[in-house]
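Project standup — Tuesday

K.O.: blocked on the structure for the chain from last sprint. Re-posting the sequence here as requested.
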Amino acid sequence: MKKLMETKYRVTLYVLVLMILSVIGCGQQFMPIATDSVKTDEEYGVLQTDDIKLIAANRYWNMDPMDVSEYYTTYYVIIKNRSDKQIVIEAEDLKLADEYGNQYDAFPDEDVLDFYGQRVLSKRAILYNDTESINTLENDYEITRRNLMQNSFYFGKLNPGNQKSGFIFFRRIPSRYTTHKLQYKNYEIEFKKIKKG
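H.V.: unblocked you, prediction finished:
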């Protein structure tokens, strides 16, 4: 009976996630705006100077945990160090700013994991308070941790000629806003909302 309930729970969860993703997929996305300093390549904005190359795209997180987009605005970012000196990239260096000047700071992946583990998985554990469900939740947490570690942008030192890439998580931007800027130190790429589907 427990196995049947667990299977029903998983099937229901996957169906809900697929429905959410189909709504998101047909919903809004932010595309880069070309300027004198920013070139666009499909969904990516590309800004290059003598010292850095910044490439960014508004991308949905498409792996476990599937509901990340409910809590965060996610960007896939590549930063290449084109200088001859080591640089340090901190979470504080990256921000989103909407058209009204509201600032959204980047969250390191460990903060996202902490939030997800404490708020989301603990709520599920209360709902399904049996050993088998708790084991499933612990397994889900490990999958989440692995995905975040492998796919998130890692802040820290960046040697000359090298690059770092991965997802960066920002507090979720309200859907009523139509433009915002991804800012890295003194550089920025502007994005505008488009309708998909």
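K.O.: great, moving the ticket to review. Residues 2-25 form the longest helix (24 residues). The CA atoms of residues 86 and 159 lie 4 Å apart.
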